[in-house]
Amino acid sequence: MSLKLLIIGAGGIGGYYAARLAGAGHDVVLTARGDHLKAIQGRGLKVDYEGRIFDCRLPAYDHASLIQACQPDDFDLVIVALKSTATEPVMTELGDWLRSGTVPVLSLQNGVDNEPLIAVVVGESRVLGGLAVRIGGHITGPGEVFAEGVAQIVMGAWPEQAPADARIPLLDRLQTAFNLAGIPTTVTDNIRYELWRKLVINNGVNPLSALTGLDTRSLTHHPEFGRIVYGMMAETVAASRAEGVNLSQQDLDEMFELISTFNAIKTSMLVDKEKGRPLELDSIAGAVQRRCRQLGIEAPYTTTVSALLVHSGTGDRLA
Ligand SMILES: NC(=O)C1=CN([C@@H]2O[C@H](COP(=O)(O)OP(=O)(O)OC[C@H]3O[C@@H](n4cnc5c(N)ncnc54)[C@H](OP(=O)(O)O)[C@@H]3O)[C@@H](O)[C@H]2O)C=CC1
Ligand SMILES: CC(C)(CO)C(=O)C(=O)O
């Protein structure tokens, strides 16, 4: 049976997954703003993925008109695909509307601090944690998204899955539907572990790519930058202990291997820096630094790269 899905933030990630899900016959509604929204409303959303073009005509709204046009329980699922810098303001903007229904909310964002912000608004029992894995994607022009990679999704009941958790039937349904739509999707019973493993990658490459302008392959294969990437990843592994997640040396090596052998991706933070947009620095490097401070340990690589990035002229745009 087809799903009714609301995707908040039709950018690189939201736009790509929207196209796959709509292509498989699901009813997808988008939110966006500005020229991108106008283009989606006028001409539709065009997604260029691995040599295939998806042209989709989908209903799209800004948040003020979404509240007028739809009820939260018109949907089986709300997917948040915003930058982390927008999570709190958008949750405030849509808070009363979301609270007027019972629909579950899935975050597909990088970082470990989005689900807690969503839970403040809708309550933990409605939150699904998730992440977009092995995908690079961004808006290339109004109404246009480019994406590459196998583009998996990992998701699970947040913060943890209880025995006989009421969210399991929905997760199973989503897993089946997403896989049939061409999105390799797995459900985990330990989503916080997976979110932290992804943070290892993002802290390893995103800030350094924004600082240097280099893609993920150039960074990880560079004799000096590769060591800095590994150092920032190791600091993320150490930081995970502050939340009892306790990532291991094996997690560190697996994540370094994953990003070293993945496509040469222009990270989302580099794309934001080039476009002069706010960076997810606080939710990536800041998240690691805060946990390390809490544990009384240093995070010298993360602290240095963050400080250089702020100093390089983006400081006034950090959220
Ligand atoms: N891009 C990638 O390759 C990957 C990204 N991720 C993560 O996925 C998440 C989403 O990233 P990404 O897709 O790159 O983000 P984008 O910036 O491409 O997309 C976010 C979209 O949300 C829109 N938006 C923001 N605020 C509002 C608002 N108030 N009302 C309506 N629309 C709004 C943005 O509009 P505007 O442009 O006007 O701000 C933009 O269109 C991030 O956490 C990122 O780290 C994970 C894996 C890979
Ligand atoms: C590093 C990468 C591409 C991994 O998917 C990512 O998550 C991002 O660009 O934010």
Structure description:
- Catalyzes the NADPH-dependent reduction of ketopantoate into pantoic acid.
- It is an enzyme of class 1 (oxidoreductase).
- Belongs to the ketopantoate reductase family.
- One of its GO terms (molecular function) is 2-dehydropantoate 2-reductase activity.
- The chain is of the alpha/beta class and 319 residues long.
- The protein folds into 2 domains: 186 residues, Rossmann fold, CATH 3.40.50.720; 121 residues, N-(1-d-carboxylethyl)-l-norvaline Dehydrogenase, domain 2 (Orthogonal Bundle).
- The strands form 2 sheets. The protein has an 8-stranded mixed sheet with strand order 5-2-1-6-7-8-11-12, with helices on both faces.
- 48% of the residues are buried.
- The chain binds NADPH dihydro-nicotinamide-adenine-dinucleotide phosphate and ketopantoate (KPL).
- Ketopantoate binds next to helix 7.
